């Protein structure tokens, strides 16, 4: 057997090993997800054997650890949504504006500096954001709004908005830069201004990627744990104001997971019921983002 045949055989074996390793990684991901779903479903089923689904999904009082107990999850869902809504109001316009600037207006030198600094925000531990909210954001807000509580939804929304901003900016920037320059040049040839090219050509052409970044960022905000646990407090209520303490679904999961709740009881099973609901919400948002991406994807040859 000549040397070239041995080299080809070695290359084929190397490709086989690489493909097998990649397939194994994908299989591990699928198995992990399946195990999580099975555990959540099993424990949640035990919970719903004792608590009516109507009480859980439509009840307005959440007191699972004290007597008399009540298992209405709406206050937790509302707390999660109000923080996510506030974070979206902050992160979406700033993130999209940053992406437009980096993609369409920034020089290569400015881009090489600004984008890594912006992405650095994503590498800061979430617990640091929580303490940042307590020690800086809340005292700063208190100078403007004296009646704001120490733990409040507004501080949580601000820091979560800062956390998800790099995701929106980076993904939207990638989507806008994927738009071919021929579309830009064609618009300029027709007499369009730079603003018109950006708003009427580039952003609509990259809309699928931009909207997908919004959905993924919202999913990230819904699933945020430590920052909101430290910033917003642990008072489940249906308050319409951002100035009071609330509790999110993830914050409650942290509370139960501290170890004070005995395993196997109904209070322990609320952990899995809330986690299953959170899983379904984030799954729905990710499926929606993927559908939007596929539905409005622009393919350029």
Task: Summarize the structure in words.
- The structure is a single chain.
- With 301 residues, the protein is mostly helical.
- Helix content is 74%, strand content 1%.
- The chain has 2 domains: 3-49; 62-295, MetI-like (MetI-like fold, Orthogonal Bundle), CATH 1.10.3720.10.
- It contains 12 helices and 2 strands; from the N terminus they run ααββαααααααααα.
- Helix 5 crosses helix 6 and helix 9 runs antiparallel to helix 12 (266-295).
- The radius of gyration is 24 Å and the shape is globular.
- It starts with a helix and ends in a 6-residue tail after the last helix.
Which helices and strands appear, and what pairs or packs with what?
Layout: H1 3-48, H2 53-58, E1 62-63, E2 70-71, H3 74-105, H4 108-120, H5 126-144, H6 153-177, H7 181-189, H8 194-205, H9 207-222, H10 226-231, H11 249-256, H12 266-295
Antiparallel strand pairs: 1-2
């Amino acid at each position: 057997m000549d040397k070239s045949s041995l080299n080809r055989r070695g290359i084929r074996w190397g490709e086989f090993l690489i493909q097998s390793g990649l397939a194994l990684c994908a299989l591990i991901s699928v198995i992990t997800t399946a195990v999580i779903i099975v555990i959540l479903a099993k424990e949640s089923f035990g919970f719903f054997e004792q608590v009516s689904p109507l009480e859980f999904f439509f009840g307005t009082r959440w007191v699972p650890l004290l007597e008399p107990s009540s298992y209405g999850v709406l206050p937790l869902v509302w707390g999660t949504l109000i923080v996510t809504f506030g974070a979206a109001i902050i992160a979406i316009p700033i993130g999209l504006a940053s992406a437009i600037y980096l993609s369409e207006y920034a020089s290569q030198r400015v881009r090489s500096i600004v984008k890594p600094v912006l992405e650095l925000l994503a590498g800061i531990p979430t617990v640091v954001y929580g303490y940042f909210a307590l020690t800086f954001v809340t005292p700063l807000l208190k100078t403007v709004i004296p009646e704001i509580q120490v733990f409040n939804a507004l501080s949580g929304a601000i820091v979560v908005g800062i956390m998800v901003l790099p995701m929106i900016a980076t993904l939207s920037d990638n989507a806008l830069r994927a738009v071919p320059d021929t579309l830009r040049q064609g618009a300029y040839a027709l007499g369009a201004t730079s603003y018109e090219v950006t708003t009427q050509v580039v952003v609509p052409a990259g809309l699928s990627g931009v909207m997908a970044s919004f959905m993924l960022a919202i999913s990230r905000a819904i699933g945020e744990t430590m920052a909101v646990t430290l910033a917003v407090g642990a008072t489940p209520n249906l308050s319409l104001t951002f100035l009071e303490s609330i509790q999110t679904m993830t914050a409650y999961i942290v509370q139960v997971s501290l170890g004070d709740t005995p395993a196997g009881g109904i209070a322990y099973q609320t952990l899995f019921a809330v986690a299953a609901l959170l899983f379904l919400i984030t799954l729905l948002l990710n499926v929606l983002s993927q559908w939007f991406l596929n539905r409005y994807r622009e393919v350029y040859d």
